[in-house]
Amino acid sequence: MPSDHDIDHCRDCRGRIRWAITVNGRRQAVNADPDEAGNLAAHTDGTGTLKVRVLSAERPTLEHAEWRAMPHIATCSRPRPRAPRTASRPGRRAAVRPGAWRWNR
C-alpha cells in the first residue's frame, strides 16, 4: 500500500492523484487510492518512483507488491481535450515553401 507523501491534486477537478511512470517512460496521473476496478498494476521501485503497467492478457494478475490503480483521466470530472499530434514531427508546424520571385516591370 502506498504512503501519502507523494499525493498531488488534479488541476481540473482537484482530485487526489499520484504521478507514475509507464513502461514506455511517460508520466501518467493515476488516482491516489487503490481501485479494484482499475486496469493498471502499480508499484514503487527501489528509488521511490511509482511505476505502472497495464494488466494485459499476458500478465493479468498482480505481482509481488503491486496494487490496482485507475488512470485519473478515466475518472476526472473535467478532462482537458488532448492536443492533436502531427505524424511526422510532434510539436512542429508545417512550413510553407515560398515560390519563385517574379518581378513585374
List key phrases describing it.
105 residues, mainly beta, three-stranded antiparallel sheet, 6 strands, 25% strand
Percent helix: under 10%
| Strand arrangement in the largest pleated sheet | 1-2-3
The counted number of beta strands is: 6
- N→C terminal distance: 80 Å
The general outline is elongated
Low-confidence stretches: none
Q: What proportion strand?
A: 15-25%
**Mean pLDDT, rounded to whole units?**
83
Order of helices and strands: EEEEEE
Give the assembly state of these chains: single chain
Major sheet description: 3 strands, antiparallel
Overall structural class, as computed from helix and strand content, comes to: mainly beta
The number of helical runs is: 0
Radius of gyration of CA atoms, rounded to a whole number: 21 Å
Structure explained in plain terms:
With 105 residues, the protein is mainly beta. The protein has strands spanning 8-9, 16-21, 27-31, 40-44, 50-54, 67-69. The protein has a three-stranded antiparallel beta sheet, with no helix packed on it. The protein has a three-stranded antiparallel beta sheet with strand order 5-4-6, with no helix packed on it. A hairpin with a 6-residue loop joins strand 1 (8-9) and strand 2. The chain is elongated, with a radius of gyration of 21 Å. The termini are far apart. The model has no long low-confidence stretch (mean pLDDT 83).
List the helices and strands and how they pair.
Blueprint: E1 8-9, E2 16-21, E3 27-31, E4 40-44, E5 50-54, E6 67-69
Antiparallel strand pairs: 1-2, 2-3, 4-5, 4-6
